[in-house]
């Protein structure tokens, strides 16, 4: 896949990107990374771990999390922190409460939160049921609030502070084929603004990152055979003319969590090789016409 090949080699340093930060940056701090077993979440957990944090990764698939932990344990250096995993479905308040309790019990109060878990399916809006729209909003927007609230209440509201990074998307120009996710992520972009104001008095910074198209096997596997065609059509609209890597997102997340960003809050940082500056929707559509300016995706493309 040519688009993927262009991204290869960018994360060859091992462990990735630690060289640009002090290895003591997060020494002893407890970090929770949801979705930390794969893709962007794994790259972020990996970087925080190698920068000294005690990192809990959490998602639904235990076997994936266990494998991720084993990989990190095998990479351990003198500078590395601790790593642990537990399962969670972030759509459940009870499960999220249990996750926070377990993380605090194991590694102490959570100071760094990366609310990375999320996703969606591709469908044009005309084929999308309200139930499907709602399930994606629940997963991405409502569950981001749920996780942030649970961590704030338990660990960050006491004035000792913390830093939160949520996962958004490049949605400035809308997102044909992903109306649900784009609306949810636009909600996240606004949510971090309000939370950053309300929680500033507790010393908590709240930011988001908005990745463009980031290649990882786990992410692409959700799009099946459609991925290659979609990507071929998408690539010309990316000024950098390549996809991003999970490590390129992890570096920005680590910066936002770090004291280097101590005066940054309420921001959403685009990580898309300039794609957020291109004034056209990110997803490719059929040939536009006057009566139907954005064309159509195949109806209800179940990928
Ligand atoms: C990076 C890939 C490149 C390929 C090119 C694409 C370009 C896009 C660029 C954007 C970049 C973004 C990338 C990523 O986000 S990577 C992460 C990818 N991971 C995922 O997306 C997986 C996450 N998905 C899920 O967890 C679930 O699908 C979801 C939460 C979204 C739904 O789960 P839920 O359990 O709530 O769903 P149900 O099965 O109960 O269904 C509820 C209703 O939802 C509708 N639905 C569900 N799935 C589909 C589908 N595949 N297609 C259409 N509709 C769907 C449906 O209405 C369900 O109701 P019914 O069962 O009654 O029909
Ligand atoms: N790749 C890309 O181009 C882009 C990705 N993003 C967003 O970045 C984030 C990471 O994506 P990426 O690494 O690419 O893809 P992945 O599919 O690798 O990551 C998604 C992660 O979310 C976890 N997850 C999904 N649903 C739940 C749930 N209900 N409860 C707990 N965990 C859940 C998954 O684990 P499990 O299935 O085991 O629960 C998985 O680890 C997502 O929010 C994604 O939408 C945003 C912009 C672009």
UniProtKB/TrEMBL annotation:
Subunit structure, interactors included: Interacts with PEX5, probably required to target it into peroxisomes.
Query: What role is this protein assigned?
Result: Participates in chain elongation of fatty acids. Catalyzes the reduction of trans-2-enoyl-CoAs of varying chain lengths from 6:1 to 16:1, having maximum activity with 10:1 CoA. Has no 2,4-dienoyl-CoA reductase activity.
Question: Which transformation does this protein catalyse, written as a reaction?
Answer: (2E)-hexenoyl-CoA + NADPH + H(+) = hexanoyl-CoA + NADP(+); (2E)-octenoyl-CoA + NADPH + H(+) = octanoyl-CoA + NADP(+); (2E)-tetradecenoyl-CoA + NADPH + H(+) = tetradecanoyl-CoA + NADP(+); (2E)-dodecenoyl-CoA + NADPH + H(+) = dodecanoyl-CoA + NADP(+)
Query: According to the UniProt record, what class of enzyme is this?
Result: oxidoreductase
In its UniProt record, a GO molecular function of this protein is:
trans-2-enoyl-CoA reductase (NADPH) activity
What protein name applies here? Answer: Peroxisomal trans-2-enoyl-CoA reductase
Domain of life according to the entry: Eukaryota
Q: Where in the cell is it found?
A: Peroxisome
Q: Which GO terms describe its biological process?
A: fatty acid biosynthetic process; phytol metabolic process
EC number, as in UniProt: 1.3.1.38
Q: Which Pfam families match?
A: adh_short_C2
User: One GO cellular component from the entry?
Assistant: peroxisome
Q: Which UniProt keywords apply?
A: Fatty acid biosynthesis, Fatty acid metabolism, Lipid biosynthesis, Lipid metabolism, NADP, Oxidoreductase, Peroxisome, Phosphoprotein
Pathway given in the UniProt record: Lipid metabolism
């Amino acid at each position: 896949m040519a688009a993927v090949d262009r991204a290869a080699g960018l994360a060859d340093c091992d462990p990735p990107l630690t060289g640009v930060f002090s290895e003591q940056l997060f020494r002893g701090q407890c970090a929770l990374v949801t979705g930390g077993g794969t893709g962007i979440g794994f790259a972020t957990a990996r970087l925080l771990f190698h920068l000294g944090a005690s990192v809990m990764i959490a998602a639904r698939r235990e076997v994936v999390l266990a494998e991720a932990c084993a990989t990190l344990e095998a990479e351990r250096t003198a500078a590395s922190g601790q790593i642990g995993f537990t399962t969670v479905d972030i759509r459940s308040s009870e499960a999220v409460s249990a996750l926070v309790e377990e993380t605090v019990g194991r590694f102490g109060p959570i100071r760094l939160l990366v609310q990375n878990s999320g996703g969606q399916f591709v469908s044009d809006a005309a084929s999308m049921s309200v139930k499907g729209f709602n399930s994606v909003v629940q997963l991405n927007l409502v569950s981001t609030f749920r996780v942030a609230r649970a961590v704030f209440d338990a660990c960050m509201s006491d004035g000792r502070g913390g830093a939160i990074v949520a996962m958004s998307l490049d949605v400035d120009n809308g997102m044909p084929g992903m109306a649900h996710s784009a609306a949810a992520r636009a909600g996240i972009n606004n949510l971090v603004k309000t939370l950053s104001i309300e929680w500033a008095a507790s010393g908590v910074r709240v930011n988001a990152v908005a990745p463009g198209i980031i290649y990882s096997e786990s992410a692409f596997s959700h799009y099946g055979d459609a991925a290659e065609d979609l990507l071929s059509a998408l690539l010309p609209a990316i000024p950098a003319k390549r996809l991003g890597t999970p490590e390129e997102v992890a570096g920005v997340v680590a910066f936002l969590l770090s004291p280097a960003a101590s005066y940054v809050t309420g921001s959403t940082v685009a990580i898309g090789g300039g794609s957020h500056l291109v004034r056209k929707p990110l997803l490719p559509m059929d040939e536009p016409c006057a009566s139907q300016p954005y064309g159509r995706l195949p109806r209800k493309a179940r990928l």
